[in-house]
Write a structure and sequence with these properties.
The chain has 667 residues and is mainly alpha-helical. It is 86% helix and 0% strand. The protein has helices at 3-44, 48-68, 72-95, 99-116, 119-135, 139-156, 159-175, 179-195, 199-216, 219-236, 239-255, 259-276, 279-295, 299-316, 319-335, 339-355, 359-375, 379-396, 399-416, 419-436, 444-454, 461-559, 566-595, 599-606, 612-622, 627-634, 638-652, 660-665.
Length: 667
């Protein structure tokens, strides 16, 4: 045998072995890929815990297939599924406020997206990382990653994702107090939404623009923006977005000094947030409710909501949330006149806001701290703190922040005895107040100005004039209030008198009606008693008559035995028997129906199978008459009546153990 003859069979066997091995491996690879895709699809519609388990299973399966090797297209396809699983896990941990875990998965997804050169997945990873940094108030990092994400989405011309990048950048700028830049980014996002016909995204822009307008003190524009957003969210039935918008409107009412209205919106917002179990939003809702209750002096409820907010904020590790909760605790203790404790909370809040460069909130916290220091007579420190708050508010362009800081400084300098500086900041606050609030709602600035004018009667002629005007206005207001109170009192007295008179008239009328009813009932009772007496008398009369007739019939039986014609006597007996029961029943029936109206008709309606004779017997039983009395009255024998009672019991469905008389009595 030649060497070629041996080699050829060996080559054939090797080829066969190769194809038999390669084919199952290719089939297994396709099956694994389909299995990973199935895990991802199931995870998208599952609850959080189930989704985590499915995503982790998909990740393990994908990593195993990558270790086993394969062609580059196959490995890239598996890597994309792996990235999707990591992004899905990151989103779950993001929603759970576990930002460190979310960031870990997002960074892994970013690295793998770069390796396969997938621009869309890379841009999505950049965006998700930016979102985490935003929630952690790391604004510079957030801005950098939003820009990277925007570049990626511009490259692939994804308008929707570009919209979300601009929106995120607007939020960053708003948080940093760069309100002008925030409006520019929101306008760009709004253009993307309008050009693509994205109504929901357009509403998101309006909601965010409302927040900027509120921060700058333009309450009219803020409410207009919120209303536009809320209309769209309600049409789409997006509970999370509705909750956000309602919460923002509540904030607007808090800023405008109406905690009652704010509380109404906060409660609606909280209810929706609790339904979707969104811990991120629950922190905000609890904190805002605590603020509203604090202003309403309901300190117990305020403390309970603040504890819930702080617990979730500590879990999230978000410095912005922690700063906000600390500031609210400071306000609560300040309302209780615990100024030392309040100052400690305000200081902690200032430091946390400073650490994350949240300038508007830092300015607000500084104003609260300055007011608390002033209440402790630490005037110099209060002036320094209030001045720092004013500088930050001026840098951010916040009218509301400048107003609060100016009012604070005016009070500080007034307490320090520096009238000129107090008046300077008071005038500044008045100008700011006129551009933010309406004169009918707010009197705080005027009261401070009046107090200042009283202390400067000799030095400031302008302050004297202003004080005089304010006093006249106050007097007119007082007179109007007194007049309204007097009118209200008179109307109240008149109303009470009218109500008292109506009540007395109603009582009198009720007494008359009751008396008439009692008289009518008494008359009816008397008539009924009379009818019963007549019926009894008639029954006795009929009974006596029948007894007499029966006796006569018996005597005639004796006469038949004598010489008198038996045929004539028999004829007489027949006539007497014919007259015995019918005539008695006719007279009896009239009297019975007057005393027991409707009894015969109910019998006929409910038990139509009863014969007239049986219904007549039922009437006798209704009068509680025994068999012998009925026999005497009806002219029938006792045995016939007993047989008739048995038939009646059967037709009425009355069992033998039940009393027939009692059954008929309730018909």
């Amino acid at each position: 045998m030649s060497r070629l003859s041996v080699v050829h069979p060996l080559l054939f066997l090797l080829c066969l072995l190769f194809f038999n091995v390669a084919r199952p491996q290719n089939q297994q690879a396709r099956a694994d890929s389909a299995l990973i895709a199935g895990y991802l699809m199931q995870a998208e519609g599952a609850d959080a815990d189930t989704a985590i388990r499915l995503y982790n299973t998909a990740i393990r399966a994908a990593e195993k297939r990558l270790r086993d090797g394969g062609s580059k297209p196959y490995k890239d396809a598996v890597t994309r599924k792996l990235i999707r699983a990591r992004l899905g896990l990151g989103l779950i941990y993001y929603n759970r406020i576990e930002y460190s875990k979310a960031l870990e998965f997002y960074r892994s997804a970013l690295k793998e997206a770069g390796e396969v050169g997938d621009d869309a997945l890379e841009a999505e990873s950049y965006f998700n990382i930016a979102e985490v940094y935003l929630e952690q108030s790391q604004f510079k990092n957030a801005m950098d990653f939003y820009n990277l994400s925007l570049s990626g989405y511009e490259k692939i011309k994804d308008n929707l994702s570009q919209f979300w990048c601009y929106t995120g950048m607007g939020i960053v700028q708003k948080q940093c107090g760069n309100f002008k830049d925030a409006v520019e980014f929101y306008d760009k996002a709004l253009q993307k939404a309008r050009s693509s016909g994205l109504s929901y995204e357009e509403a998101i822009c309006y909601n965010n623009l409302g927040n900027v307008h509120r921060k700058t003190g333009d309450f009219a524009k803020a409410m207009e923006s919120y209303q536009k957003a809320l209309d769209v969210f309600r049409k789409l039935n997006d509970e999370t977005a509705i909750s956000d918008c309602l919460n923002n409107i509540g904030n607007l009412y808090i800023d405008s000094g109406d905690p009652f209205r704010a509380l109404e919106y906060y409660r609606q917002s909280l209810k929706l947030a609790e339904q979707v179990k969104d811990e991120y939003r629950l922190i905000i809702r609890y904190k805002n409710l605590a603020g509203a209750y604090t202003e309403l002096r309901d300190y117990d409820n305020a403390g309970l909501y603040l504890e819930d907010a702080l617990r979730l904020a500590e879990k999230s590790g978000d410095k912005s949330f922690l700063a906000s909760c600390n500031m609210q605790f400071g306000k609560l203790h300040e309302a209780k006149n615990d100024f030392i404790i309040a100052s400690a909370f305000f200081r902690k809040s200032v430091n946390l806001y400073a650490a994350i460069d949240a300038l508007p909130e830092q300015s607000e916290a500084l104003v609260e701290l300055a007011n608390s220091l002033l209440s402790q007579n630490l005037v110099d420190e209060a002036i320094s703190t209030g001045g720092e708050a004013l500088l930050i508010a001026e840098a951010t362009g916040s009218l509301k922040g400048r107003l609060d800081a100016s009012l604070c400084l005016s009070r500080c300098y007034e307490k320090d005895g520096n009238s000129s500086q107090a008046f300077h900041y008071l005038k500044s606050a008045t100008a700011l107040k006129d551009s933010i609030y309406t004169a009918e709602k707010y009197r705080t600035i005027e009261e401070i100005e009046a107090g200042f004018a009283k202390s400067e009667l000799k030095k400031e002629n302008e302050a004297l004039i202003q004080n005089s005007l304010l006093q006249k206005q106050a007097l007119r207001t007082k007179n109007i209030i007194l007049l309204l109170l007097g009118i209200s009192l008179l109307m109240g007295v008149a109303l009470i008198w009218m109500v008292y008179r109506r009540i007395n008239e109603a009582k009198h009328m009720a007494g008359v009606i009751r008396q008439q009813s009692e008289e009518k009932i008494g008359q009816l009772n008397e008539d009924l008693i009379l009818k019963e007496r007549e019926l009894t008398s008639k029954t006795i009369f009929i009974n006596q008559k029948n007894q007499l007739l029966g006796k006569l019939i018996g005597e005639l039986d004796e006469l038949k035995k004598s010489e008198v014609s038996a045929q004539s006597i028999q004829h007489l007996q027949v006539q007497l028997r014919q007259e015995l029961a019918p005539n008695a029943w006719k007279e009896f029936e009239v009297q019975f129906n007057e005393v027991h109206p409707g009894f015969q008709s109910r019998l006929l309606e409910n038990y139509p199978e009863l014969t007239p004779a049986e219904r007549r017997l039922c009437s006798f039983i209704r009068l509680d008459m025994n068999t012998r009395e009925i026999s005497s009255l009806s002219g029938q024998s006792i045995k016939s009546i007993e047989v008739a009672r048995t038939r009646i019991r059967k037709k009425l469905g009355v069992p033998h153990e039940q009393n027939l008389t009692n059954f008929i009595a309730v018909i």
